[in-house]
Specification:
Blueprint (H helix, E strand, L loop, with lengths): L9 H14 L17 H12 L3 E5 L14 E5 L11 H7 L4 E6 L5 H13 L1 E9 L23 H8 L6 E5 L5 E5 L19 H6 L1 H5 L1 E2 L9
Parallel strand pairs: 1-2, 1-3, 3-4, 5-7
Antiparallel strand pairs: 4-6, 5-6
Length: 230
């Protein structure tokens, strides 16, 4: 869910929150997600692996193997500059030298819109036909869970903006599974429900936009039905 490897102190978080409130956005409404009642990301990943008989798995961002250690597959590679996985490097470094391809790629690295977009593009280049990309932390429940820089101990970052932008592409089909902080689902096929928009810069989207157009933006899928669309 959240990178806590170098969590800022409480005073720093509160100061950042105050600055964000003054300079960026004042919005207090929140969404009522209870992630304790949904499947975990590793449950869904393992279900997908078993259903599709996948053999190869790549995880970007492993955070002490919280998820990586639970993945049951023939071959798996984990990339993280700090902890967990099998390779100690950034995702950019990995993709610059990687020669392998994968059936399933799980992106849970740096939770910043620009980096997530890079990870998506690089993942698409090494994704096997009929492969799947999943992304963690796509459904922040309140404004402080998605600010850049981090302003709350529970932090999703603005990964959600990457999902919105991906939904406008014709060459990929993007959804969000309602489970475990929100799991983005990207399939390498023609977009079946392209997002028509008037957005000039996706980075400038506000949490209020996300709140107002939540279902339209995120293309939500029930956690028990996601296999039906793959």
């Amino acid at each position: 869910m959240i990178r806590n490897d170098a969590l800022p102190g409480k005073l720093t978080l509160y100061f950042r929150r105050f600055c964000y409130f003054i300079k960026n956005e004042r919005f207090s409404k929140k969404l009522s997600y209870d992630w304790n009642k949904t499947q975990t990301r590793f449950d869904i990943i393992n279900k997908l692996i078993k259903s599709k008989k996948f053999k190869t798995y790549l995880e970007i961002g492993c955070q002490s193997d919280v998820n990586f250690s639970k993945i049951e597959i023939e071959k798996k590679i984990g990339v993280d500059p700090q902890s967990g996985g099998t390779l100690r490097m950034t995702s950019d470094e990995f993709f610059s030298q990687n020669k392998d391809t994968f059936d399933l790629i799980f992106i849970d690295g740096l939770h910043i819109h620009e980096q997530v977009l890079k990870d998506i593009d690089n993942s698409l280049n090494v994704l096997n036909e009929s492969g799947v990309i999943l992304l963690h932390d796509c459904l922040p429940a309140k404004i402080w869970h998605q600010t850049i820089p981090q302003t709350h101990s529970s932090w999703n970052g603005d990964v959600w903006k990457s999902i919105v932008q991906s939904r406008t592409r014709e060459d990929i089909d993007t959804y969000t599974i309602k489970a475990d902080q929100g799991l983005g689902l990207i399939l390498k096929r023609k977009n079946r429900d392209i997002l028509v928009h008037t957005i000039d810069n996706f980075k400038d989207l506000k949490f209020e936009d996300y709140y107002k157009y939540h279902e339209k933006f995120m293309r939500l899928v029930d956690e028990n039905k996601f296999l039906e669309i793959i």
